[in-house]
Amino acid sequence: MRLIRAERRTFTGAAGILDDDDHRADVAAYFADMTRPFGAELDTELSGHSYGEMAKALVAAVVPAAEPVDLLVLAFSIHDMWPGRATATYLSHLCPGTPLSFAVCDQGSAAPFTGLRVIRDYGARRALLIVVEQASLPYDSTTAPPLEHRGVAMLYSGHPGTRVTDLRQYPDVAPEAVAGLASLGVAELSAGHPGARVVLSDSLAAVWPGPPDHTRAPVGQPTTGVWWHLAEALAGSGGPVVIGDYDRELRYLCFAVVEVRDQ
Amino acid sequence: MTAPDAQIDVELRQRVVQAMSAVLKRLVDRDEPISEDMNMADELGVSSSLGLELLLEVEEQVGIQIDVEKMRPDELRTVGELATFIAGHSRPW
Amino acid sequence: MQRQYDEQKPRHHNIVAHIDGHRNDVVGSRSVTALDAVSVYTPAFRVPIEDLADPLELTDIQVRLFRRFHGLDQIRFDPDRSLADLLHAAADGLTALRGREHRVRYVIHGRGMPVVVPYPHNPLHDVCRELGLEHALTFTVTQQSCASGLLAIDLAGRLLAGDPADDALALVLTGEKAFTRDARLLPGTSIFGEGASACLVSANGSRDRLLSYACSQRGEFDTEFGERAEKFQREYRSSLAEVIHRAVGDAGLALDDIRLVLPHNVNVVTWQRLCLLIDFPVRRVLLSNVPANGHLFCTDAFANYQTARELGLLSEGDRYLVATVGAGAGATFAAMVFEH
Predict the structure, then answer these.
(1) Does the pLDDT at position C21 exceed 50?
(2) Does the pTM of the predicted model rise above 0.90?
(3) What topology does CATH give the domain A166-260?
(4) From CA C124, how far away is CA C107, in angstroms rounded?
(5) Considering only the top CATH level, what class is C209-339?
(6) Which residue numbers in chain A have pLDDT < 50?
(7) Interface ipTM
């Protein structure tokens, strides 16, 4: 399975659908019902983006009409401003090939890695992994939202005989154990893929014990961070890229080695 | 396939047609008379949910219980076809 | 001890899952996914649908329709339990889990409502900690509406098949709160209730083996494309019939080989009409939970399975079909065939 195409975008403004008064009222009611049992107060202002809108643009950019996709996984952590929408089903209709589509969530920054695992284990010929996060919540949260609305769509292509992506996900890793486990994991993966570039999330880079021979994803984009830089790797020469991420809240340490196609 | 008309109680069928017309006029807000050959979906704008409402109200007005389990809505497009089905597939409430 | 999930080098039992790009269905060419055990939790408290007329803003005729044709009677609710409590209650009933927690490598929550708690609350992970399952990869799959539960089973099977540990297990959880209007009422179709299920899945079990899975998504019914309720109603039965036929065919069977159908419990009239369409005896469709529960989101299939077992409706070797439609703008039709 190889990464053959990617599109990454920062989105500005708010979801277009919030301009519709009826929809806005429906969404406000949904959020009110959702936050009431938690005693959180709802903002009167609703801003923030919609993953359907963001992903629609990404899909259009990364999947040509003549190349059908078999599987589409939408990975997110923070929710968007159309929380009740079956966004993945909507995207299935928009994406060439009408792929089997669903969302993976409630797993923090590990969700996209799980998405990659699912893609691998389905053995799809062509699969789209879309990682999204948006920057606005209509209520106070203990966790700060990301700085910007961002999305990364990655088209993976698998053929029999193609090298399968290495994937390692460690659940329940205490913060103090991260450094040791991470450097071990990266060393092993890099050894299996000489010349691999390394991209680490800022949460992981922050506890990195050795010299910084890696790219550090910027702070403030916890879900898309490493994938944003992975997408960049397509602009250069091909080869393996090791990406690593640590979700402090849910204690997942994840690594993947992605073979980036030579352009 | 729905059974042929052989055993239809003509008087019952007539009451069903009258009830259907009255109910339909109210459901689709129509003043003009309704004839048996009218296609309910296309000509009268009866949706699936209105269709169920129609059945319920006819049941209550005529005092019958329709064997809905045997109903194939795709084969009952006109007022007349549905009336025939109801008259042949119901029992007193 | 750190557990890791890593890729093995070429596996001799590599799964070939061919995906037909034109119809977004997945034809699994293996049949090893198995349901080792199922536990269902349904609250005792029930409300007659007449009492829901005011809160759901239903007219008298709408309530009478729900009762007369849709077959709804009472709806189950659990006002004292949160989502985490519901999931926990279902898992508590899963005796097969006790002593085997260490073998659970994946916990997958199949959920119809995509977002149900404020960020970053995570009742799923809270429950897993309480159950001693912190070592598992735990996540939610959603955005296939009420078909997300079947997806979770298929996903569980595939992840297990790709896992190097031969004795790996997955826990599939369903359960939701009817917390907002879209999670309380499907206009003209059904009323949601509350319940939960926990299902232990293996990749090599001997009973309740998954023979096939067919899924068809109809994103064209998303509200962005306008109000299409009538078109959806017209195509509903044929779309459901299509996935049923596909699942049955992919299992190498004919419809007549299906001993029992475990439907989604939205209403009775849909299944009566569907049975006429596909020429399948409606007495072989388990519909008794429609009046008993209401529509329990992704839990219907499991609740029906439980009832089938309790009533002794399945004998060893029987093939049964589970079918569901996730609706509510954007629709997903899904069907699975199992061998008991």
Answers:
(1) no
(2) yes
(3) Peroxisomal Thiolase; Chain A, domain 1 (3.40.47)
(4) 9
(5) alpha beta
(6) none
(7) 0.96
